[in-house]
């Protein structure tokens, strides 16, 4: 497949997330009244084109999983909108939500926790099919599941085995087979390889890439490991404290990051082509503020080496600073 | 300087010779570490890499003599610390050097901090064990140590409990405890794996600082090749309880030799390079109880395996100056032209 051909087919957005917010109430006191809010996701904007992989990176607690769960409507967003396949799905319910969930599937971090170890693999993978196609013949379903198992690189006899009989990497393959069962358009993969040993990690990453081509999938790929995200993604969104601070093509994020946080993040990743040499590194001071009590203005201003006075009062919005590179920082206003 | 002191100063800081550590599984002993030899010099960082379960932690626990009692034991080999054979030390003798001359940062910070004592109490305990300090001096010292590892509000944090701290902060407390007595040798078992990269960068920088100041030797266990490249002088690659390759850090990256090393390095995505497809290693590591006793342990997964690989056990041999590898492809008695590369 040539690159240009790829590009021209990737112009239509499959997903558009606009100013999405997810605030969790904090209850306290005798009457369990709401005494505050955890602003886990606090104004996230990005879009994903058909067939594309958008990576979402950021440090622990910055709101990556919450963003994924809100898109899938496992959580009800507090504000903002989610447009999927030209449909506003932010507030849909009932049958409509059920239909959407057929098209958006999730692969989770922990293959141990997300599968029932006492269930037969065949049942785990066919469960979503049974759910949506009640009248499907047993035979036909089994054939489909066998084919899925084959596609994700599991032996056919896996069908009759139990999840607990498999290794971590194999369980993640089971999870992927289940996610594929309904032929979704979008897969949200939340740290799909973080629990795996490196030699197994590469198998799962390769598999996800092969499946994307074969099934024409679009991915939202969430991980905290920048090297993994860069390997998998076309574009990358960088999150900090509930906000997307920069979205760009992966090469721009790596070679020419514009937001001071992205710059610090990239400079912190140790470079395997750099032996023993001291590298200029932007070392951030202090800890990440609590999402319960985020700083005013720019969420990063308390640790930003380039912060100015006005950064504590004005919250910068994402703006296209270079073609395709969106940054939320006053420096580029 | 007396003669014995002179020879002591010349001896490497840590010398491990033919170490075999076994675990008793259903009444039988199986070697989790099987004939491992290496040295660590003062002021040097030796990295250890290898797949999960290859024996990195067990090797470190053996050096520290912290193996689970009654289950794991050193079966064979010698551990020399500062020129002195320590594997026969009793508990009391070990207690004198452990924490003071050699210290360890454990893989899981939460299990190694005691939840019922304050952070300050736990650091002060280490200090009291090895130095004569007043209560106040110990308290001041622990606040100092906490700020040294980059903990904000150190004077307040000393009175808090482990569960009140974030994972990154707990890991920093562990490091503060490990460096409290300025040890000559630090064994750090995945010290930054649970941390975000920006915190990891702070911590690695801090370790580097202490190391150059005190001429400390470090054994750094990590799966992160970037960390290896930037922090280590030498690297040991382990597979299934054995060392398969040992070399300086630059040779590891520019001319890896063992087929396992090559595959492992190719299977990890790198930020600085674009790879179309990652390398994979087929199959799995044999379990401890099913480990082949003859031949190369990687043979069943090795794309370059030859029939004799399951019959002849490869020895770790110097292939180029300072670059050792255990693979028949490189053994001089088994010249296999055309298969190298
Ligand atoms: N159900 C909930 N109730 C209250 N707070 C929550 C809830 N879920 C998440 N949070 C908080 O929201 C913030 C974002 O959490 P989230 O799990 O989205 O982060 P993340 O970026 O996925 O982190 P990680 O890399 O550790 O997985 C955190 O501060 C978390 O404690
Ligand atoms: N307490 C124990 N009892 C029995 N076997 C053990 C015990 N601890 C470790 N082992 C075995 O010894 C081998 C080496 O384990 P070790 O913890 O050293 O691996 P590792 O290289 O540190 O792996 P990781 O990268 O996952 O930390 C493994 O096969 C493991 O199952
Ligand atoms: Mg998460
Ligand atoms: Mg270990």
TrEMBL record, chain A:
Set out the biological process GO terms recorded for this chain's protein: peptide transport; transmembrane transport
GO molecular function terms here?
A: ATP binding; ATP hydrolysis activity
Question: InterPro entries annotated for this entry?
Answer: AAA+_ATPase (IPR003593), ABC_transp_ATP-bind (IPR050319), ABC_transporter-like_ATP-bd (IPR003439), ABC_transporter-like_CS (IPR017871), Oligopep_ABC_C (IPR013563), P-loop_NTPase (IPR027417)
Keywords of the record, alphabetical order, are: ATP-binding, Nucleotide-binding, Transport
Q: Enumerate the CDD domains for this protein.
A: ABC_NikE_OppD_transporters
Q: Which residue ranges does the record assign to the ABC transporter domain?
A: 15-266
Asked if the keyword Nucleotide-binding belongs to this entry, the reply reads yes
Tell whether Cell wall biogenesis/degradation is among the UniProt keywords. Answer: no
Q: Which family does it belong to?
A: Belongs to the ABC transporter superfamily.
Q: What name does UniProt use for this protein?
A: Peptide ABC transporter substrate-binding protein
Question: What organism does the record attribute this protein to?
Answer: Pontibacillus marinus BH030004 = DSM 16465
UniProtKB/TrEMBL annotation, chain B:
Q: One GO biological process from the UniProt record?
A: peptide transport
The places in or outside the cell where this protein is found are: Cell membrane
What Gene3D superfamilies is this protein classified in?
P-loop containing nucleotide triphosphate hydrolases
Q: Which Pfam families does the entry link to? A: ABC_tran, oligo_HPY
The way this protein sits in the membrane is described as: Peripheral membrane protein
* SMART domains, per the entry: AAA
What is the protein named?
Answer: Peptide ABC transporter ATP-binding protein
Q: Which organism is it from?
A: Pontibacillus marinus BH030004 = DSM 16465
**Organism ancestry:** Bacteria, Bacillati, Bacillota, Bacilli, Bacillales
């Amino acid at each position: 497949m040539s690159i240009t051909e790829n590009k021209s087919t990737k112009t239509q957005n499959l997903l558009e997330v606009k100013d999405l917010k997810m605030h969790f109430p904090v209850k306290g006191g005798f009457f369990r009244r709401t005494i505050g809010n955890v602003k886990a996701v606090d104004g996230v904007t990005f879009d994903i084109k058909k067939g594309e992989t958008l990576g979402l990176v950021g440090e622990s607690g910055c709101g990556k999983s919450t963003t994924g769960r809100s898109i899938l409507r496992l959580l009800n967003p507090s504000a903002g909108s989610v447009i999927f396949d030209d449909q506003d799905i932010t507030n849909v319910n009932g049958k409509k939500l059920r239909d959407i969930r057929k098209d958006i599937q999730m692969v989770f971090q922990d293959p141990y926790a997300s599968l029932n170890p006492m269930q037969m693999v065949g049942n785990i993978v066919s469960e979503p099919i049974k759910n949506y196609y009640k009248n499907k013949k047993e035979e036909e379903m089994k054939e489909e599941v066998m084919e899925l198992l084959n596609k994700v690189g599991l032996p056919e006899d896996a069908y009759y085995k139990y999840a607990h009989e498999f290794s971590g990497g194999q369980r993640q393959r089971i999870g992927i087979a289940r996610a594929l069962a309904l032929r979704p358009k979008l897969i949200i993969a939340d740290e799909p390889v973080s629990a795996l040993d490196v030699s197994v990690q590469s198998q799962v990453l390769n598999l996800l890439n092969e499946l994307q081509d074969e099934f024409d999938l679009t991915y939202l790929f969430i991980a905290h490991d920048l090297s993994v995200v860069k390997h998998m993604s076309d574009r990358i969104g960088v999150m900090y404290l509930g906000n997307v601070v920069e979205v760009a093509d992966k090469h721009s994020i790596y070679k020419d990051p514009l937001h001071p946080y992205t710059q610090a993040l990239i400079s912190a990743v140790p470079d395997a082509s750099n032996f023993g040499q001291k590298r200029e590194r932007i070392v951030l001071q202090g800890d990440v503020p609590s999402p319960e009590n985020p700083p005013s203005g720019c969420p990063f201003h308390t640790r930003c080496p380039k912060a100015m006075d006005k950064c504590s009062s004005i919250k910068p919005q994402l703006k296209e600073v270079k073609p395709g590179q969106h940054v939320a920082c006053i420096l580029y206003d | 300087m007396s003669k014995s002191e002179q020879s002591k100063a010349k001896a490497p800081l840590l010398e491990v010779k033919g170490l075999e550590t076994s675990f008793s599984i259903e009444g039988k002993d199986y070697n989790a570490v099987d004939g491992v030899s290496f040295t660590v010099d003062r002021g040097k960082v030796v990295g250890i890499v290898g797949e999960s379960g290859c024996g990195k932690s067990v090797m470190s626990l053996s050096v520290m003599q912290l193996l689970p009692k009654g289950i794991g034991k050193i079966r064979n080999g010698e551990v020399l610390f500062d020129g002195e054979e320590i594997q026969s030390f009793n508990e009391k003798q070990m207690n004198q050097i452990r924490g003071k001359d050699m210290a360890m940062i454990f893989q899981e910070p939460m299990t190694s901090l005691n939840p019922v004592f304050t952070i300050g109490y736990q650091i002060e305990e280490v200090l009291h064990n090895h130095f004569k300090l007043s209560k106040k001096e110990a308290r001041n010292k622990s606040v100092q140590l906490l700020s040294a590892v980059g903990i904000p509000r150190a004077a307040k944090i000393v009175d808090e409990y482990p569960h009140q701290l974030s994972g990154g902060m707990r890991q920093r407390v562990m490091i503060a405890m490990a460096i409290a007595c300025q040890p000559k040798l630090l064994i750090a078992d995945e010290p930054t794996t649970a941390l975000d990269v920006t915190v990891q960068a702070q911590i690695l920088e801090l370790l580097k600082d202490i190391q150059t100041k005190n001429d400390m030797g470090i054994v750094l266990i990590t799966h992160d090749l970037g960390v290896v490249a930037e922090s280590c002088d030498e690297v040991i690659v382990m597979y299934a309880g054995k060392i398969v390759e040992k070399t300086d850090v630059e040779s590891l990256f520019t001319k890896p030799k063992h087929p396992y090393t090559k595959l492992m390095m190719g299977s990890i995505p790198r930020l600085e390079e674009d790879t179309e497809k990652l390398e994979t290693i087929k199959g799995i590591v044999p379990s401890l109880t099913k480990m082949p006793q003859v031949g190369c342990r990687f043979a069943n997964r090795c794309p370059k395996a030859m029939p004799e690989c399951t019959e002849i056990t490869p020895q770790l041999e110097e292939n180029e100056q300072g670059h050792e590898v255990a693979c028949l492809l490189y053994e001089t008695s088994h010249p296999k032209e055309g298969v190298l590369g």
